[in-house]
Amino acid sequence: MSEGMLSFAIFFAAIFTNNILLTNYLGMCSFLSVSREVKTSVGLGFAVTFVMAVTSVLNYLAYYYILVPFNIEYLRYIVFIVIIAAFVQIVEMIIERVSDTLYLSLGIFLPLITVNCAILGVSLFMVIREYSLLSSFAYGFGSGIGWFLAILAMAGIRQKTSRARIPRGLEGAGIALIIAGIMALAFMGFSGMIDIN
Amino acid sequence: MLSELLITVIIITALTTFLALIMVIADRTIANYGQQEITINGEKKIVVDGGKPLLSSLKEKQIFIPSACGGKGSCGLCKIQVNSGAGEYLPTELPWIDPREREKNIRLSCQVKVKKPFDITIPRELFNIKQYKTAVESLVDLTHDIKQVTLKLENSEGISFKAGQFIQFEVPLYEMTDEPVYRAYSISSPPSRKDAVELEIRYVPDGLCTTYVHKYLKEGQKVMINGPYGDFFLRDSQRDIVCIAGGSGMAPIKSILLDMNEKKINRKAVYFFGARSKRDLFLVEEMQRLEKELPDFRFIPSLSQPEESDSWEGETGLITECVEKHVKNGENAEAYLCGSPGMINACVDVLTNRCGVKKDLIFYDKFS
Fold first, then answer.
1. Cis previous bond, B301, omega within 30
2. What is the pLDDT of residues B148-163, one digit of tens each?
């Protein structure tokens, strides 16, 4: 497979077969807490997609051009986290400055993302699976879209279940986790399509 | 081995310094909104550093807007009218703003950031609010869980307030807080005492301020307060006065009664105080002294669950039952209530529906 084709396959796999949320169960806390309404989940979804796509590239550069040459790959956890946090901070500042409407729909979610483990997960998987720069970008972007799809579907379902009669002990997080589990099973249906492990 | 360590340290230091540098530059350029002008009530103009919340910008200029949570957007008290400059409503403001307030451009000042010139309208009496440095003069246990805290003001001119108003107590950084927080407490001393304020603070398990006061505060320690705030004070009229309080709700009522005594206001007054058992009662002697000094004042404490050992002969039962039994001619009375929301709601109900007190003549100070 050519580099371009491979990256496209990875992009596709990150959305469906290897959905970071539903197969790796990463990024669950914001997935559960911000999926009550479709509108807010769309805002968060966009923010996550954007940050994942860009930080996967930034972390790729930091890893292969700083950590590997000096033989200090074991520091990647700290370095990745710091880079993600700094990037998110700066993006928040820029959005706040440029547009009030964008800030209202996107900016308020950015602080939540700083500590989202799915974003760190993308950078770590990219290193473990030894992706190229293009593939890393495709993987980050695809994972973001996959996460977006999952939270969007979840928010749609939860808007319906908010009016349903749910057994008392299962209200809130309980039923949400069960729904997430069933969604993960549904996404397993794609698993024969591509394999990127 | 050593060189490896050294390289690691150098790389990490360089990387974090680089990122920190970018953040500092971004902070100075992107997040720098320069100096912004705030016009207050169309006359006074102040200049503040842009980009900060309106509440703290005003505070820096010694204009204090009442706020109980200290700017977290969780109490909804710091509302002010912003005529221009604030932009769209933020999602964090909306839960506190009703449609009528929206028409008047009422905003939550702790959430709105000053990024453009602002034009705001604030009530005149807020200009009277100041920040005071104080030192703890005395700490006295009134009951097993209520402390009387006397704070001596360090400035020479003292504080002027109306009996019944409250101040905000600044809790500094300590084990339970990661930033200074503010909590509101009523003043229990009379306004004639200008050099100090006396507070009555009940211990609430895990309460940030109450734990600080009960477990950490020592005599001589410095405390910052600001105030006075609130529209809970004695109205000027000839009506009878009904006061109702529970627990540390004693504080503002005590201030009002002492003030009446000093000013020789001889209106007919009755004060119902609700407590669980005798160990929750306090300042009874002081109230009995006031009964003698004021010409027409009665103090009626009522215990809801007196212990056998209390040998209590006074009123028993819920405070609402006691009020219903004793308040006659409610149409000619005004009421002052201070205590928990549950107690106040129940008392307002009894006063309006059973005793005939007009609803707009019931004033209250709800703990929240």
1. no
2. 999 999 988 889 999 9
Q: What is the CATH number of the domain that holds B183?
A: 2.40.30.10
Q: What is the pLDDT of residue B44?
A: 87
B91 CB near a chain A CB, below 8 Å? yes
ipTM for the assembly: 0.81
What b/e sequence results for B103-140 when a residue is b if at least 16 CB atoms lie within 10 Å of its CB, and e otherwise? eebbbbbbbbbbbeebbbebeeeeeebbebebebbebe
Q: Does A2 touch chain B (CB under 8 A)?
A: no
Question: Which residues of B fall within a CB distance of 8 Å from A108?
Answer: 90-92
Q: Which of B191, B125, B189, B135 is nearest to B159 (CA)?
A: B191
- Cβ of B346: how many Cβ atoms within 10 Å? 17
Asked if the Cβ–Cβ distance from B27 to A93 is below 8 Å, we say: yes
Please report whether residue B245 resides in a domain: yes
Phi and psi torsions of B5, nearest 5°: -60, -45
Chain A hits for B32, CB-CB cut-off 8 Å, are: none
Our CA-based measurement puts residue B9 at a distance from the nearest CA of chain A, in whole angstroms, of: 10
CB A6: neighbour CB atoms within 10 A? 16
Of chain B residues 9-48, which have a CB less than 8 A from chain A?
11-12, 15-16, 19, 22-23, 26-27, 30-31
Residue B288 CB coordination number (10 Å) = 11
Chain A residues touching B31 at Cβ < 8 A: 93, 96-97
Nearest to A82 among B11, B16, B30 (CB): B16
Task: Answer whether residue B203 is part of any domain.
Answer: yes
- Tell me the nearest-neighbour CA distance from A171 into chain B, angstroms: 23
Residues B355 and B245 in one domain: yes
Final residue belonging to a domain, choices B126, B141, B166: B126
User: Given the DSSP bridges, would you call strands B106-108 and B79-84 parallel, antiparallel or unpaired?
Assistant: antiparallel
Residue B111, in any domain of the structure: yes
B7/A contact by beta carbon, under 8 A? yes
The per-residue pLDDT for range A114-167, each reduced to its tens digit, is 878 899 999 999 999 999 999 999 999 999 999 999 999 999 999 888 888 889
Spatial neighbors of A158 by CB under 8 A, at least 6 apart, are A35, A36, A176, A179
Number of folded domains that form chain B: 3
* SS3 state at B273: strand
Question: CB–CB of B31 and A97 under 8 A?
Answer: yes
